[in-house]
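Entry type: protein chain
Record version: 2
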Amino acid sequence: MTLDLTHLSAAARLQAFDSSEVRVRLVQEARWVSHERVQRVLDELEWRYLHPVCSRMPCLLLYGDSGIGKTMAIEKFSRRHPTTYDPREGLQKQSVFMVKMPTTPDERRFYVKVLTTLHAPFSPSERLATLEDIAMRLLRKIGLKMLVIDEAHQLLVGSYREQRRALNLLKGLTNELLIPVIAVGTEDALHAIQTDAQVASRFDPLHLARWSESDAFRNFIVTFGKQLPLRKPSPFGDREMIRLVLASSGGITARATRLITRAAAEAIADGTECIDCARLDAMNARKLSDAA
C-alpha cells in the first residue's frame, strides 16, 4: 500500500510504517516543539550563559502557570550544554546545573538537595556551614556557569523568617559563585522575589504566558501534529480545531499536547488514523462525564 505522508515531518513519515502498537507508544513519548515564545526563553538563557563574569551577574526569573513549558525549555537549554568528562581531573564537568527548591525554603535542605543531585558523599547531620562549604566547592569544581533553581515559588511556603533567609540565599549564591542564577516557578515566585527590593533588582522577570488564539498557537499545534505518525492528515490548522484545543486546554501547553496525544493514540488504535473536532468533542464529553 502506498501512503501519502506529506502531512508528516521526515521522522514521523518513517514511524508511520510501524505497527499500531509501536505508534501508540511513540505518540505517548515527550517531544520538543520549538516556537517563538520558547525561543525567546532560550535566547535569554544563552545571553546570560555567555555573559562575562562581573560583580553583579544578570539573573532571571522565569515564571508562568504549571504545564506552560518552563521546565521543558530549561531542559532543552541544558541539552545544548551537556555534561562532559574531564579525564585529567577524573570529574564530570557541568556548566548548567538544575536543583529544585525544597518544599520548605530551608538553607540546610537546599544544600542537601544540591549535594544529593550532584551524587556527592556527605553526612546530612553536618553543620549548615559545612554543608554550604562542601556544596560551594563542588559547584565551582564542576565548572558551573549557570545555576537553575526550579520550583522557586516554594519560597512562599515557609514562615516570614524562612522566606527572608531563602531570599538571602539567592543573593548569596550569585555573589559567591559569580554566575547567573535562574529561578523558575509559578507567579507566586514573582510575588516572593518582589518582597525583597535587592533580590528583585537582580532578577529580570520573564513571563511565559498562557496561549491565546493567534498565529503562534496555530503554528505550534500544526508543528506538533506533524510529529505524530498518523497515516492520514488532520485539520490541525483549521480555526475550529484551534479554538477547540484552546478552549479545552485553557491555553496551557501540557494540556493541549496531552489532548492531541490521547486523540492520536485513539485514532491509531481504532484505525481512523486522523484527528477531527468530533473526536476531541467526544473526548471532552467523556472527561466531563467522568468528572461528574
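Comment: The chain has a mean pLDDT of 92.
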